[in-house]
Amino acid sequence: MLRTFGKTVGGAIAVLCLVSTLAAATEMTCAKDDGKGDCIAATGPDGHTVVVVGEGLKVGETMDCVDRGNIIACQAR
After folding, report:
1. How many helices (H) and strands (E) does the chain have?
2. Are 57 and 41 in contact (CB under 8 A)?
3. Beta-bridge mates of residue 29
4. Which has the closest alpha carbon to 31: 3, 57, 5, 64?
């Protein structure tokens, strides 16, 4: 009984962590790349430009970005 309850609670916590990560994703547009195919600055929906890390992205491409505390990581849509 206790083992089943522990598995249920652990699974619920894992799902909540995953959902919170996905909910924090923001759509941004690459504003500047480094010439090697990596985006280094992006413009958010509010019009502000921020420093990001996005591999395989060029200027004008839309991407999903997640703030990880010390960096903003982006991936192509």
Report:
1. 1, 5
2. no
3. 43, 62
4. 57
* Per-residue pLDDT, 38: 93
pLDDT at 55 over 60: yes
CA distances from 17 to 13, 24, 28 (A): 6, 11, 23
**Listed range (1-5, 44-48, 62-66) with the worst mean pLDDT:** 1-5
Q: Which residue has the tokens 């958010």?
A: 44
Give 18-42 pLDDT, tens digit per residue: 445 444 678 999 999 999 989 999 9
As a whole number of angstroms, the distance between CA 38 and CA 34 comes to 6
Both structure tokens of 65: 């970005």
Q: Is 46 left (phi over 0), alpha (psi -120 to 50) or beta?
A: alpha
